[in-house]
Amino acid sequence: MKNEALFRDKPVWTAIFSLAIPSCITILIMTIYNMADMFFVGMLGDTAQVAAVSIVSPIFSLVMAIATMLGAGGCSVVANAIGAEKKEEAKTYSSLCCMTSVIIGIICSVVILSSTTSILNLLGANEDIMVSAYTYMRTLAVGVPFMLFSTGFASILRAEGAIKEGLIGNMMGTVLNIALDPIFIFVLQKGVVGAAIATVIGNVVSSVFYLYFIVKKATVISVNPRFAMKNPMSLFHILAIGLPNGISSLLSGFASTFSNKLLVGYGTDTVAAMAAAGKAVMVITMIHMGICMGVQPLMAYTYGAKNGKRMKEILKKLLLLTVVFGTMITIICFMTKHELIGLFLKNASAASMGESLVIYLLLASPFMGIFYLSTNFLQACGKALPATIISVLRQGGILIPCLYLMEHFMGFTGIAVAYTIADLFSVIIASISIILVIKSEKYLRE
């Protein structure tokens, strides 16, 4: 297996950084990728086209949630199987991920293309937005199978140790999308449709690159349908392991909707202030996530190999890395909060509110790495249910009631406090879960 020595023999710090750094870069690239369409369309000065991008985004957020489920679940189970020296099983898992992404992608494309107007009405598109949103959505719909495949296999490649290839494929799609956006939008005067065309082309190129690598160079991962046919029911295991990632993405959107509905009662400036505060601390969360998701295949491989000594060393060093990093970046964000909020808000009143809100959002940031470490460890060990429960509690079960409760007692400030409370409780619950798993696994107690 490509780079199997990295998982099995390399010093733990070397393995962690070899996996975590490319993963963090990928996470940051994906953020830029997701912002590119809105940024360039916004330069047109046509609010209807900007609104079209916003209106359509929930549908493709759902598509990305499915891709994340397949990618995270597939990466974990493939790495686990490789660690346990079950290469045929690993081929079955990767082949199932390929077939599923293509089949679900085609189904989604057909549904979107045949029900575009109905879907847009459901999403709240008015007459001004409808024309732009209609063409934007239909163009993106054509590329859904490629979107699912490229996003999923960017993660699955890491299970074989193909870290560099996963990063290259991701960067190829992103750079091409960003380069083509101004060409299609401004030079060819396609407007919002041009942004969609650039996105589709970016995903196609990434998919072709990943497919070429798997067919020509991969030693374990396979897209051959005959492996999937050996045990198609294994798909449910893949989806169960990846469910926490998918459900977290979906619930995050729901939580933002509830939060905005409460904030809008305090005026537009308050909504903008909270949005800016959230963006100011987002990089901390994203890098925590990138570190732990990047190292997940290492944990899954080690779990499959039942190497308790190495697993405990991985967990201790990841805990140290995330807490130290989280604390350092939190301090930097606190000291530069005025400048950070100023990047997003020019209105003095809104910026002042943003600075006060960001303080509350930063309180839990040093410890959020523990949450992501716990959920990724649980997934790596095949503990899908507790990982899913923790994700649901953080973004739904704890957060949403807290939003209404804290807003009632503290006004709009309470909404920021609610996020901190939900994060801290989730860290505690996640920590208890990981301790219970360690105590229940004989190879980790030795």
Description:
- This protein has helices at residues 4-8, 12-42, 47-83, 87-114, 116-123, 127-142, 144-156, 163-187, 192-216, 225-230, 234-263, 268-305, 308-335, 337-344, 348-362, 368-380, 384-410, 412-440, 442-445.
- Helix 3 packs antiparallel against helix 11, helix 4 (87-114) packs antiparallel against helix 6 (127-142) and helix 4 packs antiparallel against helix 7 (144-156).
- Helix content is 87%, strand content 0%.
- With 446 residues, it is an all-alpha fold.
- The protein has 19 helices and no strands.
- It is globular, with a radius of gyration of 22 Å.
Summarize the model shown.
This protein has 19 helices and no strands.
**Quaternary structure of the protein:** single chain
Tell me the helix content.
Answer: over 70%
Number of helical regions: 19
Report the biggest beta sheet as strand number plus sense, adding barrel if it closes: none
Strand content: under 5%
Contiguous runs where pLDDT drops below 50 for at least 5 residues: none
Overall residue-averaged pLDDT value: 79
Ends apart, CA distance between termini? 28 Å
Q: What overall form do the CA principal axes indicate?
A: globular
- The ordered string of helix (H) and strand (E) elements is HHHHHHHHHHHHHHHHHHH
Tell me how many strands there are: 0
Helix-strand category: mainly alpha
State Rg.
22 Å
